[in-house]
Amino acid sequence: MKVLSRIHSPHDLRLMKKELLPDLCEELRVQIIQTASKNGGHLGSSLGAVEIITALHYVYNTPDDKIVFDTGHQAYAHKLLTERQDKFSTIRTFGGLSGFPKRSESEYDAFGAGHASTAVSAALGLAIARDQQHQKHRVIAVVGDGCLTGGMAYEAMQNAGLLRTDMLVILNDNQMFISQRVGALGTALTKLLTTKYVQLAEEKATNFLKRFDELGNNAAKLAKRARSILFPGTLFEEMGFRYFGPVNGNDINAMIEVLETLKTVKGPVMLHVVTKKGKGYEPAEKNPTKFHGVGIFDVDTGDSLGKTGAITFTKAFSQALVKLAQEDPKICAITAAMPEGTGLDAFRDQFPERYFDVGIAEEHAATFAAGLAAGGQKPLVALYSTFAQRCYDQILHDICLQKLPVVFALDRAGLVGEDGPTHHGVFDISFLRSIPNLIMAAPADENELQHLLKTAFAAKAPFVLRYPRGAGFDVPLDKQLTTLDIGKGSWLTKGKDLTILAIGNRVHPALKAAEMLRDKGVDAGVINMRFVKPLDTHLINEALKRSPKLVTVEDNMLAGGFGSAVAEYLAGQNKPFQLLRLGIGDEFPPHGKSALLYDKVGISESTIVKQILQWKTK
Fold this sequence. Notes:
It is built from 26 helices and 17 strands. Helix 12 (252-262) links the parallel strand 4 and strand 5 (268-274). The N and C termini lie far apart (58 Å).
């Protein structure tokens, strides 16, 4: 790392000779690959964006000039160049650097991001704040092509075109979107169109044509459209952006030259660059989807070194969905650009005509599903729990209000580990539980998940099925799927001193906690509640007959969560009770390994025991 070791801040970078920058980019890639192989992370997009990020810090005066990243998957080189090189080995580990831009981590992180399609909105806000405070710094948004499948990006662009403030949006096209026209022609046209002479001539021509009233206005529009025909950025031009590109985003010298030139262009500007996802690492170039987000892997081969063993919840869901779809031709599946992550890739491969990837457009996914249901189909929407937050209104207004039978499969519910607070799925129970007509269930293990999926389709009602990331509890999968009684849980073990009411992936830890409590002289029962809504109040009443002491355990926020549902029910009963609610407090849990995080928030086996013993002796 002969070049990278000399960079302690972007100021050092800006003092470096341009001839050394290609070597710097290669060293950045080596560092990113080596670290991701040990810590996991978002590799492909970060490798592709190395030259873009290096050029931005070389040309612009960061941190005074503001760079906003969309999603943040591509920002690893940014972290290495902005005074965090010595800490980069800690990325995604507990107490270490976040895997995403984070305002509290560095002054160079102008805006935090973990969800897509937010950068243009945030950058526009920063630019208008600059204008209102009579400041002169520049604002740049770096967005991936996938982010432009989200409607929020277009809302922001049309507003930026209206406000006409100075800002630059860099569209990082990793060859999966828009245009393949890259190379000398694109670069030459971009350089030509950014020259002051061309801009001045265009302005004079437009002003001249405007003198002819209606004819002039029409002629000006025609002239603008004629120009747009030559370029793939017609849409952006119509929204009020000056479009330039496409240029080779993996050519550091071309990027610097274009960025320097664009500094003189006024108003909102769109620069379209094309990069290679996974650039510089052959396994990632050949399989960019696999290396979008990875666990630990062997650098030489790219092979995963992750744990093997119990089937994952995602895999159990995937297999069950395919089995059910083979029996029922009305079942459809929808994803918001996450077929592999949600396990819908197997459904896609077997039933392509019933599979729909809507892009990063969760709101559309939900209402599209509502339309399918209204038309007599049986739609399932597979999302990560954290992304379901984005379609709350559609779930409430378009689905539940009309009692439409849409199934939501919320993967990554609970604590997700190294991706941290932007991705923890710890809010879904709280924000969905209050909606009328909605059924909500959480399987205790991978076997119960497949039965609940069958139950969800049979319910003929809005149904949310939430389940965690990662391996299950090594429970054998039944070959025959059955329909479970809605709103009914089950006793797993009975005790005379207290009863633990557990939901979802906290059921098995609660069982082990009960065993540990018996060794300490406490006879604890355990109920697998299974359904958050409707609540099995019959089982709760049975538990109260055995002991007034009840403990709820969940991997959701305590505020408005499963424990709150139990407390609400008990408050309306004329029965004595003592209730201990265990879950996640009023905080955003940090990033780190899931087992460590469950311990930190107090819902691992040992911490369940510890808190119950402390509570019982009060």
